[in-house]
Amino acid sequence: MRTTFIYSEEFAKYTYGSGHPMRPIRLKLAYELIKAYGLLDLPNTQLIKSRKATEKEVLLFHTKEYIETLKKADSGEIPNDAVRYGLGFGDNPVFKGVYEWSLYSAGASIQTAELVSSGKADIAFNICGGLHHAMPDKASGFCYLNDAAIAIKYLLTLGKRVAYVDIDAHHGDGVQAAFYDTDKVLKISLHEDGNYLFPGTGFLDETGRGKGKGYSVNLPLPPETDDEIFVKGFEEVVPLFIERFKPDILVTQLGVDTFRTDPITHLNLTTNGFETIIMGFKKLGLPWVALGGGGYNLSNVARAWTLGWAIMNDKIINDELPSSYRESVVEFGLKETSLRDKPFTITGSEKEHMIKEVESTIERLKKDVLSSSPIR
To answer: Is 168 helix (H, G, I), strand (E, B) or coil?
Structure first.
């Protein structure tokens, strides 16, 4: 198993501004923890420095007009037409280097696609990727360039069939929209129900259009969903649809804003459920492009993606965080000493109701989507 980790010190040099939940420093903390465990010094692992995407590459998905405006925003000054493109307010602030930072994210995701599609790596991981909300002509949900869509567009130019699976708490609306009318990309998203969380999409009836009918699969989950319920949904839906689709390459968005201590979502996952899901991806045995995603608790991001990278490399690592790492993160207010969370589960009538709801949703997916889908 040959694995590649894509990283650059540039990832963490930018800021969305004081008080914004998206903090690029989380990427450096994840990298440092992975390094502290020795997971970048394995015999079949390589560390590659991220490159910036070219304009030609980002135009595989985004419009020329939007990119020109994003270039103007790179100075840190809000362009006159910013509002038209979703820039300069709320979720998507304009900050110095906003375009350059986004180019690093997109470039790293293209690198993972290049490595995996060429056979130079079996698994490649870009923790700066997974910015799945950006639309062709608009920034959205902390995302300026949709690196996942760009990477998949690149894979399609090579004639690859791609399965994209998104486990972020937020629905992967940008990626779904990018490939809603094609049968070359299977999109599966497990996320908190859009009635309760941004972007308010990802419902059962969003199954595709035209040739893409039946190739978009959404499993909305109720607030408070725990490891058991999320894993149940994953195990009953993801392998089934992927087996039918028979993709050449797996692309995953591994957001960890699903965790119970995330400050902006309402799910109850822990590292225990996350590990099970990552092992589920690994068991699929497909060439694997792994991308990061959401996650707004710094400790969760570092610990979960370290566990994920360990599983990708078939390594079991100690639960006690390395002392060198613990000392280095004190300034960020991180006090955890354990890599893994204690198990957590919802109990009582609330749990029973949630299980019934999710089971019903899964059955509807199998009946209404799989049974009528061209991939059956």
So the answer is: coil
Return d(Cα 213, Cα 210) in angstroms, integer: 6
Tens of pLDDT, residues 255-275? 999 999 999 999 999 999 999
Inside any domain, residue 196: yes
**For residue 285, what are the contacts with CB-CB under 8 A and spacing of at least 6?**
none
Alpha helices (runs of H) in 189-284, residue ranges in sequence order: 227-245, 271-283
251 three-state secondary structure: strand
Domain count of the fold of the chain: 1
Residue 288 lies in a domain: yes
CATH number at 171 reads 3.40.800.20
| Owning domain of residue 295 | 3-370
Prediction pTM value = 0.98
- The beta strands (E) that lie in the chain are given as 3-7, 45-49, 123-126, 162-166, 185-192, 216-221, 249-253, 288-291
Active site (catalytic) residues: 133
DSSP, collapsed to helix, strand or coil, labels residue 114 as helix
Residue located via tokens 């362009």: 79
pLDDT for 348: 95
Stronger pLDDT, 89 or 318, i.e. the higher one: 318
On whether residue 376 sits in a domain, the answer given is: no
Do the domain assignments include residue 106?
Answer: yes
